[in-house]
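[#protein-structures] MJ: dropping Dyp-type peroxidase here for a structure pass
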Amino acid sequence: MNTANSRSAAGVRIEIDDVQSGALRPRPVPYEGKFIFLRVDDRHAGRALLRRLLPVTSGGLPSADRSQDAWVAVAFTYQGLRALGVPQESLDSFPRAFREGMAARAELIGDVGESAPDHWEAPFGTGDVHIALSALASDAAQLGKKLEQARVAFEDTSGVQVIWQQEVRQLPTGRTTFGFRDGISHPNIEGVGLPGSNPQETPIKAGEFILGHPDETGSLPPMPTPDVLGRNGTYAAVRKAHTNVAAWRRFLRANSSSAEQEALLAAKMVGRWPSGAPLALAPEHDDPELAADPHRVNNFLYREHDDRGYRCPAGAHIRRTNPRDSTIIGDARMHRLIRRGTTYGPPLPEGVLEDDGAERGLVGVFLGTHLERQFEFIKAQWINDGNFIGYPGEKDAVAGHHGGTGTVTIPEKPVRRRLQNLPSFVVTRGGEYCFVPGLRALRWLAELEG
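AK: finished. structure tokens for Dyp-type peroxidase:
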């Protein structure tokens, strides 16, 4: 499957081996990982670090042996590119959202209240995050090898400081801290050679995810200059989010009369059962056998099975973040993302309804070539407003910012159900906008002069 070049149906040449592995490859299952943020205090030291990291990075798609999956990806904030000495002309060619950074655009994307940058974990939003490393592997041994290679690179480079680290791993249950299977959906990208998870999804133009190729509009997405810097790169919104699992459980308990009703309400809010079985195909009860079948678990469309949301509500988390063919205001294909979700912290013990004070949640990486049209649009319009589904002001039941005043609508016959006073189940701990260059671009950055 790993080939140097692929061609789309339109004959577009995709240089897969120049695209960093962390951009297109789905994360391993199970997985172990680590995120590391670095600050560059000397541009020459930063470039020396990149030269040492180059042998650690890789491109291309997974090999047949997924058990050997392991990679390190390298990304840069706008301030990081400045710290490396990228010419101002090139810096000015990056899109506004990237140049401003996530903290400056927090209100736009719904990071307000307890999720506002004033409450973020340092060093998020401070301007000190320059280089972001992400390492993922199928097991601890593989991860250790990759991290050791990276550690040698940055520990041998004075003038570059590690300022933040976060370990992530799949929980023993294989699910998120909320108790739901994650990482099921992956877009079908034209010309890449990696099948999407939904066989009914028409391939999406490569330019939505890889710079230098036409996107869904038929045009090339704006690309930083020079060409060697921008081509085969992409953008990543990196987010750390705390999950209020105890509040989630209390809300379900308070609005249900039995354990079975709790499970159904949770599934209605998420759009899937804990196993991953979608409500669109399993509307009445969980179906682990369906969930375990990779050919069935994501093989559905809403208009065909459930346009009015009686199975999976229009406001359910997975339906809001990927409406597929739903009847909505706008074109869902213009806002598709690659999403990498990884879990940190211990699970809250089963049945516990009070918070234990532990930090737990998700580190999410959201990839695409249009930060504003993809990540920011989804956050502002689909997660934190319901106008596109006919519920103005109603936020994503799981991921929206509610602050104790949220509502969620669940279509039922003969009368729909509307739940009130939702707390915020997810609280932002921090975020950064990053540029993920191609491998040739990494070499260009490493060899900058001046």
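MJ: nice. The longest strand covers residues 426-436.
AK: one more thing. The chain has a mean pLDDT of 93.
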